[in-house]
Design a protein that fits this description.
253 residues; mainly alpha; 72% helix; 0% strand
Length: 253
Amino acid sequence: LGLGDGHWRPGLLVGGLFALEFLLVGEGLRYTTASHMAIFLYTAPIFAALGLHWLMPAERLKPAQWLGIGVAFGGIVVAFSGPAAAGHGGGSHVLLGDFLGVLGGVAWGATTVVVRCSRLASSPTTRTLQYQLLGAFVWLGLAALLTDQTSIHFTPLVVASLGFQVLVVSFASFLIWFTLLRRYPASRLGVLSFMTPLFGIGFGVWLLHEPLEPNFVFGALLVLAGIVMVSGYEWLRQRFKRNRESPVAPRSS
């Protein structure tokens, strides 16, 4: 755990933020749809980029990235202005779930900032993952006790979902994610998660038969566009530069 070298301080913070993120997601899903949660949770790269802009000079935002942040936040506003805002489709309960999803994105983005700006950036990836899982175990266990959510009714679907969450999400994906964070700028890595909310919306509609409101679809597209502009700025800039520098084939006479 690195108790003697000071890693425990940012480790405790990372564990607390990780637990808070999943608490917000779990509570939010009681009010809103999986499709909505997939979009609002994955605003995390936007909040991570904002935090790193102020704390790490190497990751200062460029004007195009600030524009992307504006587009993403505009998309959040548009998505929030759907039928729920007018009192339909669950009314304020849906808005509450959506808002908890955005807060979950803030917690996830803050986790990235803490890892990049602390001793955890140079520590083994497994140590960061260990702090996250220990923090989730302790804090979410206490939250379950306080909210009387300790009973489990095991079914094949619950067992399969729990196995997927433990082996794929909590172990494999986060181990890979923090390995990448040690090697690449966090603002660029955010583009890798661009496909996840699209899969979230697709599976929500396909498996859960969730409706898609026009406001939400348009807002989600703006959010995703903003994320690409912020997280994929370097990639987009290099592609644009490569296209400008590529020689043009001469016309045949």
